Amino acid sequence: MIFFLHRLSLYLADLCRLLFLFFILGSNTANAQLVNKISTQQYCILKADDFIGEEGSAFFKFFDLIKEKNIKASVGVISSGYPISNPSNHLVTYVQNLHNSGQFEFWNHGNTHKSYSKNIKEFKGRAYDLQYKDMMHGQDIMKKTYGITMRSFGAPFNAIDSVTSKVIKNIPEINVWIFTQDGITVPKGVVSFPEANQTLIEHNPKNDGKWNPRPNYEAFKKNYDPSKKYIVSQLHPKRWTNNKDWAEFEKIIAFLIARKVRFILPTDLLSTQVKLI
Ligand SMILES: [Zn+2]
Asked: For 94-131, what is each residue's pLDDT tens digit?
């Protein structure tokens, strides 16, 4: 009897080992498939800068196009701009509708967008209190006037310094920072994307000596890297004043849609699914 019980316990131990092995192998295979599936997915963040709410501007054409294509885009607000800082009821409703649609994210692009000198910009080379005040100006206006809490920040000219990092650390609402630069510490818990890793959609920034960014399909295709997990592109839709600009942009969007690229918003970088890759 004792012998029989001993054999039975050995048998049960073997069975447990087998079940354990089966479970581990099974789940590993499932994990491998998941990783495979996710790593082939490419994500695109459209970062449209300099929104101040002028109805009738090309920015509104941009909104219509994004809606029509059923994709997503993020919009950088200059908070002291007019009319965004003192809007009509119509503009408030319009912005709120874009926000509520889930297709658009409004993010903090500073208060003044000022360049004080070659090396001093709104968020570069200025004291903590001044940078903090300028960043909070946008947070306050968007919350009070539109009921929107902005969760992402991108500096005018992408000009930043270590003080900007401290300011972001002390504004817990800001969770995403696009773009950052080498040598600047990103506060813990904040997701960032380096400017150097940008995929350019706009090209020919100098036109007759003036900075004049416009979408360029051929240049984009040269920049495009299918192995990149993220395509993040800075845009200036207000400057796309020719039909050709829009045609080029549409070609780029069609190219990305055909490749099954998923358009996401900056705060989507905080979601587990996107971050997993
Ligand atoms: Zn800007």
From this structure: 999 999 999 999 999 999 999 999 999 999 999 999 99
| d(CA 133, ligand 1 centre) in Å | 18
The pTM for the full model equals 0.84
156 Cα to the center of ligand 1, angstroms: 4
State the distance from the centre of ligand 1 to the C-alpha of 157, rounded, in angstroms. 6
CA of 35 to the centre of ligand 1 (A): 36
Distance between CA 223 and CA 261 in Å, rounded? 16
Token pair of 207 as six digits? 């036109």
- Residue 102 gets the label, from left (phi > 0), alpha (psi -120 to 50) or beta, of left
Structure tokens at 88: 């009509």
**pLDDT for residue 35:** 43
Kindly give the pairing relationship between strand 73-77 and strand 104-108.
parallel
Domains and CATH numbers, the chain: 40-275 (3.20.20.370)
CA of residue 32 to ligand 1 center, whole Å: 42
Measure 180 CA to ligand 1 centroid, in angstroms.
14
CA of 93 to the centre of ligand 1 (A): 24
The two structure tokens encoding residue 160? 């930043």
Q: What spacing in Å lies between the alpha carbon of 49 and ligand 1's midpoint? A: 5
Q: Where are the alpha helices (DSSP H) in 147-271?
A: 162-169, 217-223, 243-258
Q: How far is the CA of 84 from the centre of ligand 1 (A)?
A: 15
Which stretches of the chain are assigned E, i.e. beta strand?
43-51, 73-77, 104-108, 152-153, 176-180, 191-194, 202-203, 206-207, 210-211, 214-215, 230-235, 262-263
User: Rounded to a whole number, what is the largest CA-CA distance in the chain?
Assistant: 98
pLDDT at 39: 52
